[in-house]
Each structure stands twice: as C-alpha cells, then as structure tokens.
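Fold this sequence, please.
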Amino acid sequence: MVIALAQLMVVLDATIVNIALPSAQRDLGMSDGNRQWVVTAYTVAFGGLLLLGGRVADLVGRKRTFVIGLIGFAGASALGGAAVSPGMLFGARALQGSFAAVLAPSALSLVTTTFTAPKERAKAFGIYGALAGSGSAIGLLTGGLLTEYLNWRWCLYVNVPIAALAVFGACALLRDRPGNRGGRLDVRGVVMGCGGLVCVVYGFGEAAARGWTDPFVLAALAGGLALLAAFAWWQTRAPSPLLPPQIIKDRTRAGCFLTMALAVAGLFGIFLFMSYYLQVVLGYSPLRTGLAFLPLTAAIITGSTQISARFLQRTAPRALLVPGMLLASSGTLLLTTLTVEAEYATRVLPAMVLMGLGMGLTFTPVFATATAGVAPHDAGVTSATVNTAQQVGGSIGTALLNTIATMSSTAYVAAHLRDPAQQAQITREGIVHGYTVALWWSAGLMLLAGLIAALMVTAKAPDRRAPTDAPVRESVA
C-alpha cells in the first residue's frame, strides 16, 4: 500500500490540474498559448527522464531512490502551489516530472523484487495495476473537488501530506537489496535516450496546439527519432548500457511494452474527449465531471483486483490481455454513438464500465509479465521502460486523436453550416462529430493492442508450485 500510494500520486498528478487550469490561468495571468505548459512540463520531464531514473534506482538502490523521489516530489508540489507567476508554476511542474521519473520505476521495481511468490505477486500487481490505470480518472475527480471547494493551489499542496505518509511507511516497512555499486552510468546513453524521449514527447505534445505541419513540431520529432536511433545503436556497444538489449529483445516483454503504449494511447484520448464532452456539450460542472468518471475508476479497480489478480496466478497473460482489449474497444465503440443530447445513464455509463473492466484486465498482467524473470540489477530500468511506454503512448495518443477530432469538427461545420442562425447548434454537432471520429481511431488502437498481445505475449501460465518468480514465465527471444 505504501508503494501503491506513491504510484497513485504520480499518476493522478498528470490530470489533477486539468480541471483546475482555468482558475490557475486567471490567478497567474497565463496566456492561452502558454497554459498547456502546466500539463506539458510535467509529462515531458516525466516521460523523457524515466530511463535515467530506472538506471539510477538500480545503481543507488530502489528504497533510497524511492524516498528521495517522494521528498523531491513533495517539495516541487509545494513550490508549485505557492507559485506567484506562470514561469514559477511551469518550473515546479517540470521538477515534479523529474522526481516522478525517479519515483515511478523504483516503486514498480520494489513490487517486482518484494513479491516473488505467484499468489502474492498477482495480488500486489492487481493493486498496483488498479491504481496505475485509474489514477488519471481519480485525478479528474480530486481536481474537481479541490478546485470547487478549496483552491486550485490545493491540487498541488495535496501531494505534501500524501508523500509524507509514504515516506514514513517506506522507512518503516520497505526492504531492498543494496544498489549495484560496481555498475556505471551510461552518460552517452543518457544524453541520447533521454534527449530523444524528451524531444518526441514534447513534439507530440506541441502538435495538438501548433499542428502537425508546424516546422518546430517536425524538427522536434525528427530530432527525437534521430537521437533514439543513435541510442539504439549505442546500446548494442556500450559497456554498461542504459537499456540492456536483452530486455527489449525478449518477445513477450516487447509485446507487453507495445500493448501498454497502444492501450494508454486510446485511453488518454478518451479522458480528454469525455472531459470536454461532459463540460462543454452537456454543461456539467467540474465536480460533476469528476464524479462522472467514478464508474470508470471503480471498473478498473474491480477488473484489476477482483479479476486479473485472481486469474493471473493460473492463467497465461494473453488470456487476460486479449479479452481486456476487446472489452475496452467495445466500450469505446459505444461512445461513437454520442450526440449533443445523449443521456449519461444510457450512453456514457455502460461504455465507461466496459472500458474500465477491459483496462483492469490489461494493466495488471502487463506490469506483472513485463517485469517477471528480470535480473535484480535490471529491475529498475525494466520498470522504467514499462512506465515510458505508458507516458509516451499517452502523449502520442492525446496529440494524434486531438488533431483528428479538430480536423473532423472543422470539416463537419464547413459542410453543414448553411444558415447563420443555426451556427451554435451546428458547431456543437461538429464538436461531437469530431469526438466520435477520434473515438473510432481510439477503438482501433485498442484492437491493435489486443492483436499484438495475442501474437507476441507468449508467456505461459505461472507454475503455482514455484516459490519465486524465476519460472513464472517462459522467455521467448
């Protein structure tokens, strides 16, 4: 629960400020063009520095980096809550993301190395997967509550008591092996790998605002891909690689990484569209919007802890992953029937339940399988790679689907607006049309994730007699 508490804090901070953003913009005098940095500064630093954070955890020790990450995250949160200018808030959010990049991989690798018996491992990853999958929705609800009843600054201050509680629990309860003191940090790999990820995440984040053909966006994406290509080449020659090649050469593990990236790409797009649909089209308040996501959160937790955690110890991972992605995509397809007068209870609620159950069936086996059978000195960087797939997938999915929605909405309004008196109605219909087109793409991403899981995740069911996780899965190179 200590580890899960820290993971929840990291994940929900990606969305907790979304609902509070209008209030923060008014208070600090942010421009419309700069306000996105409140979100982007966090995701760019988080996604770009994860590999470095994972390797640092392996070298220094996971418990130590876990505590350092908690303290740093709390300090950055307090700084952001006390911000008196946009620049101060942007910097605090980037600092939050940097410490999150240390905290997240150390948290997941602590779960990996602490729980080795198949039954305990399944329960632990069920809890971890539930919070990792539902954290974004919980962030929307928490942001709505704090903004409506307290102040937008409490969306950042709230991390301080959470982190303090987690630090106390970590010092009292967590145990860890010493770090790999004989290892070295691959500085060249850090520059190329982390630099490439920062450029790619930043490029996709800016594409939503600037457009895909903007020279700055193209330069960031091209530069990021070039750095990542150089990073891949260097990792096969580096004496102490930042990302050991054997981690991603494993067929099952690579399948888990791809499944995670595609699943989250579809899910984060849904968070974006449904937040706007409920507030802009249906006229919900921030708090009511947050509450509307509760069934999704409850379904993810149920799918992770009551279904995945129970079957993971006796079932092959893809027997959970494939049905999970089919359920999630079917829920997404239900949302493609939305209209400007759609009823929440008849259209949105069933879709959220199906999506939540599907994601709950997916996250737990992905986390557990991707980190199974890894040498202890590589646990941190493997955990970081899973988190990187999640962050990069979310950034790419949000930018790609938002662009598709915007273009489709513009085309719909241009084709249907004949009478200026109907402009408001046609515009609302155009917005919903754009969302439904993007949701078709989101469902397609989830179906592709299911196909990849079926073809690549070939690990067998765990041996329930095994005392450790060593024979849990078959490694297929």
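The first helix runs from residue 2 to 12. The radius of gyration is 21 Å.
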